[in-house]
Amino acid sequence: MNPVSDVPMTASSAAHPRTAQRLLLAVACWFDSDAGGPEDAGDDRIDWARAVPFFAIHAACLGVLWVGVSATALEVALGMYALRMFAITGFYHRYFSHKAFRTSRTVQFLFALFGAMSVQRGPLWWAAHHRNHHRHADTEHDPHSPLYRGFFWSHMGWFLTRRGFRTDAASIPDLMRYPELRLLDRFDILVPVATAVGLFLVGDLLATVAPGLHTDGAQLLIWGFFVSTVVLFHVTVTINSLAHRYGSRRFDTRDNSRNNALLALLTFGEGWHNNHHHFPGAARQGFRWWEFDLTYYGLRGLAALGLIWDLKPVPVALKRMH
Ligand SMILES: [Zn+2]
Ligand SMILES: [Zn+2]
User: Fold this and answer.
1) Ligand 1 mean position to 131 CA, how many Å?
2) Where are the domains of the chain?
3) From the CA of 273, how far away is ligand 1's center (Å)?
4) How far is the centre of ligand 1, averaged over its atoms, from the C-alpha of 134 (Å)?
5) Among 271, 315, 319, which residue's Cα sits nearest to residue 293?
6) Cα distance between residue 115 and residue 110, in whole Å
7) 77 CA to centre of ligand 1 in angstroms
8) How far apart are the CA of 257 and the centre of ligand 1, in A?
9) Residue (of 175, 177, 172, 162) closest to 135 by Cα position
10) In the 3-class helix/strand/coil scheme, how is 126-180 assigned residue by residue?
């Protein structure tokens, strides 16, 4: 018997069903995040089949070549960007990840829905990874440090892996108590699909009742959903990839976080990332009056309406120092 010729045959015949099963599981995960199973915990390879919807959203932006553009389409794209950026920064980040203020269960769910429209998965997945980022910032255990794994990894490689797709429930026991949030997280494709369909229907309606706006269903779908979502995504993740590399450091934190005014403008205040790593609990990330923090102004507005309360302030000592 020749052991050398025996081994590859056995290995390859076992590999095919496993590959097919992997593919099926990846496709199942497009619709049900829990379909993946627990064996993926340490797998840092990019799961290309699982990532197809992510690349498809990028490819769909090419639709602008067919649908054209109108002022209405651009306004809707901008409005969708602003609403979802605020939901991500104000709620996915400052509320769900850091508990920087308090609110009712209804408002919590409402902004979880707005956040879920961003196609950045559910609030539990987002907050779990972000808490782990703060816990291990710019060490080898940081999910997305540009210092350890480079730009591409910190920008988008990290969450396209089997490990990255998982939600670390142990990091978010306080959020796991809410079945409605667990549902948003598990079936995270539902809200984005409903958003896309809704935009198409609104555009279709406008084409009939307000033809002077020169828009239609396909145009609002491409600009309001696909283009706006892709821009929103890439701007959001600059806080992982660029704000740990480029900018100034007011505080000597353990990590390499930076304050970057341009990123703060685009992300509604998240670019004051060195401030944020120094004192993550505050509802405000711009510590000086001139440090533009649109999310904080929005949160103050919601507080004035009584929808949120107990906004955690920046400690006075931190404002005076440095
Ligand atoms: Zn950071
Ligand atoms: Zn944070």
Assistant:
1) 10
2) 57-120+180-320
3) 6
4) 6
5) 271
6) 9
7) 27
8) 6
9) 172
10) HHHHHHHHHHCCCCCCCCCCHHHHCHHHHHHHHHHEHHHHCCCHHHCHHHHCCHH
Question: For residue 81, what are its two tokens?
Answer: 């960007």
Phi, psi dihedrals of residue 46, rounded to the nearest 5°: -70, 130
Please list the residues that pair with 161 across neighbouring strands. Answer: 46
| Contact of 151 with 260, CB cutoff 8 Å | no
Cβ–Cβ under 8 Å, residues 52 and 189: no
Q: For residues 221 and 203, is the Cβ–Cβ distance under 8 A?
A: yes
CB of 270 closer than 8 Å to CB of 250: no
Whether 1 has a pLDDT exceeding 50, the answer reads: no
Please give the Cα distance from 37 to 39 (Å, whole number). Answer: 6
With both helix axes pointing from N to C terminus, report the angle between 52-60 and 228-236 in degrees, rounded to the nearest 10. Answer: 120
Distance from residue 98's CA to the centre of ligand 2 (Å):
7
Please report, for residues 93, 162, 166, 291, 310, the alpha-carbon distance to residue 123 in angstroms, rounded to integers and kept in the order given. 9, 18, 13, 27, 21
The CA 164 to ligand 1 mean position distance, Å, reads: 17
What would the pLDDT profile of 229-274 be if each residue is shown by its tens digit?
999 999 999 999 999 999 999 999 999 999 999 999 999 999 999 9
What is the C-alpha to C-alpha distance for residues 199 and 190, in angstroms, rounded to an integer? Answer: 14
pTM to 2 decimals? 0.92
- Residue in this structure with the two tokens 């103050």, named with its chain if needed: 300
Taking the C-alpha atoms of residue 10 and residue 3, their distance in angstroms, rounded to an integer, is 11
Q: Which ligand is nearest to the CA of 127?
A: 2
Q: How far apart are CA 143 and CA 112, in angstroms?
A: 22
Sign (positive or negative) of CA dihedral 287, 290, 294, 299: positive
